[in-house]
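Quick one: examine this chain and its backbone structure tokens and tell me how the chain folds. Here goes:
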Amino acid sequence: MKLVIVLPSQFELWTAPAWFSERLRGDFPQLEVVHRENYESIEDDLRDAEIAVTWSLRPEQFHAARKLRWIHSPAAAVHQLLIPEIVASDVVVTNARGVHGPVVAEHALALILALAKCLPSAMRWQAQHAWAQEQLWRERPHPREIAGATLGLIGVGSIGGEVAGRAEALGMRILAVREHPEKGTDWARPAAPAVAAEPPAVCGPEGLEQTLRESDYVVVAAPLTGKTRALLDAPRLACMKREACLVNVSRGALVEERALIAALESGRIGGAALDVFEHEPLSSDSPLWDLPNVLITPHSAALTDRLWQRHYELIAKNLQHYLAGQPLLSAVDKQKGY
């Protein structure tokens, strides 16, 4: 049985380290593990491969992989993999949503806290050696507490659920919008929240606008699909409170960027913390860079020194399932796109 790993990237953290394939060979001696640095002539290795760990495959590459039965993506988003040929096939696609959920959720909470405490402005004043206590207080929104604030959560998958549990522990009220509201509030909860919050509420997509109206912070954590592209457009951004802040740790295309810029420039919403953008890297001439009410991180929410250990644990567990003929973890619904 052959497994091919091909994960080329200019950023070293996204490339599987050498120990990864070596450990697979040691733990699964029945596997032939081929670790490729690029896609050049990858068809030669895919022809007899049963498993592939990769970001994407072009149609001609997939057609060459006649024995392929399972594709695993180390990303949470799999839209690059869901070409019509793969969607129509019997090949199972899995992703790494469980790997990224906890660390991205930490990043989302860090962004909320940074906005609530006006940390970006404090750092700008620090660079000027200025004691700006009064200036910070005069900002809009004012420095504020997040305990008792309402968090509108768009998407309650592996990331959104982790955000919800952590936010509840800090005393935030959760209003969650999810594709299947019948799942309710099924996220993990802390044993003893720091501050008692109002009970959470869950609704379907039809409740999005009302959720935006009630929220002090809005966290975007939904997958990118045909339904969610440009989900937050100008009319929906206009539903937000004037003091509310938007946090996007999902995919930039869920938010209509020009509409967001207009809302931020006009003061229609209080601020934004953005880890993802419609086009990445974010162009150096984007107005977002210079807006005082915007905090930008360079799609770094998933960065952690434990990343590949987490990946290994998931893939190793799924290999055990695969070899035993059991259902795979983190399987993607190819029709829905997540």
Notes: The domain at 100-296 is CATH 3.40.50.720 (Rossmann fold).
